[in-house]
């Protein structure tokens, strides 16, 4: 059914604008694009994994757009929906663990466009997605490791809100979604380090609305590895070290 509505295809050189999408759906209901950065494209297994996920996302949104037009065509009087997903490498640690940011943009002609952020941790040795569990001796819900992470995350978010003159939203109400649970604590990446091949700690990425009002945009919380040192496995000890590069900390959050 979907193929009659939209086609997912690798984009040919004849289509305009650089950089060109690596996958695309374009019809009267939606234009939705997926981009991979050059470092991801250089890793065939990682590129295949990201593009497969990206195409599923394109298909789902094309189906939703078609259903929305059928339900109320007025929502499309100004044109179709506009969606974009970008995969980019944030860090490569120990020449093995690749942290990927997945940034989404969605415009369905509501009050304003929305955005989302998620992450992928890729094991180059195993050619598969993994979690941060192997770096920690325990990651039980409400356990000591997760509680220490949440405490450090909230401290980091409060500091960032102070920098943005947004201290009034540094409240438990906004932080209640940051739970001591690996699946609910936030999208995580291994932060780059001043020490080659190491990670300086964990960065947790939050889209608009997650820990503050829409107008405040995205937030990134940084937890230095030293805070997590008591909870590390030998593999964690091996990959963490150094400090967060100044430029990384100063990037727009």
Structural description of this entry:
With 253 residues, the protein is an alpha+beta fold. It is 30% helix and 26% strand. It contains eight helices and nine strands. The chain has helices spanning 2-5, 38-41, 44-71, 144-163, 172-175, 225-228, 234-239, 246-250, and strands spanning 23-26, 30-36, 81-93, 97-107, 114-123, 128-130, 187-191, 201-206, 219-224. It has a six-stranded mixed beta sheet. The chain has a three-stranded antiparallel beta sheet with strand order 7-8-9. Strand 3 and strand 4 (97-107) form a beta hairpin. It starts with a helix and ends with a helix.
* Beginning-to-end CA distance, first to last residue: 40 Å
Specify Rg, calculated over alpha carbons. Answer: 20 Å
Portion in helices: 25-40%
Strand content: 25-35%
Overall SS class: alpha+beta
Mean pLDDT: 92
Uncertain segments are: 1-16
Total DSSP E strands: 9
Order of helices and strands: HEEHHEEEEHHEEEHHH
How do the strands line up in the largest sheet?
1-2-3-4-5-6
**Tally of individual helices:** 8
Choose one word for the global shape. Answer: globular
Main beta-sheet strand count, sense and barrel state = 6 strands, mixed
Question: Could you write a compact summary of the structure shown?
Answer:
It is built from eight helices and nine strands. With 253 residues, the chain is an alpha+beta fold.
SSE layout and pairing:
Layout: H1 2-5, E1 23-26, E2 30-36, H2 38-41, H3 44-71, E3 81-93, E4 97-107, E5 114-123, E6 128-130, H4 144-163, H5 172-175, E7 187-191, E8 201-206, E9 219-224, H6 225-228, H7 234-239, H8 246-250
Parallel strand pairs: 2-3
Antiparallel strand pairs: 1-2, 3-4, 4-5, 5-6, 7-8, 8-9
């Amino acid at each position: 059914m979907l193929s009659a509505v939209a086609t997912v295809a690798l984009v040919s050189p004849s289509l305009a604008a650089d950089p060109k999408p690596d996958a695309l759906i374009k019809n009267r209901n939606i234009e939705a694009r997926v981009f991979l950065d050059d470092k991801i494209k250089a890793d065939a297994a990682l590129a295949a994994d990201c593009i497969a996920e990206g195409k599923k996302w394109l298909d789902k949104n094309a189906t939703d757009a078609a259903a929305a037009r059928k339900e109320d065509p007025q929502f499309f009087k100004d044109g179709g929906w506009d969606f974009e997903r970008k995969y980019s490498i944030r860090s490569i640690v120990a020449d093995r663990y690749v942290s990927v940011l997945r940034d989404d943009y969605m415009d369905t002609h509501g009050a304003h466009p929305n955005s989302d952020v998620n992450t992928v941790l890729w094991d180059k040795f195993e050619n598969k997605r993994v979690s941060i569990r192997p770096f920690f001796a325990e990651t039980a819900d409400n356990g000591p490791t997760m509680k220490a992470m949440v405490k450090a995350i909230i401290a980091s978010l409060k500091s960032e809100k102070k920098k943005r003159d947004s201290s009034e939203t540094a409240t438990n109400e906004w932080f209640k979604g940051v739970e001591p649970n690996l699946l609910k604590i936030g999208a995580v990446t291994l932060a780059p380090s001043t020490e080659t091949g190491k990670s300086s700690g964990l960065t947790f990425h939050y889209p608009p609305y997650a820990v503050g009002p829409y107008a405040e945009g995205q937030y990134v919380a940084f937890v230095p590895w030293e805070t997590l040192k008591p909870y590390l496995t030998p593999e964690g000890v091996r990959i963490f070290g150094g400090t967060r590069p100044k430029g990384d900390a100063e990037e727009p959050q």
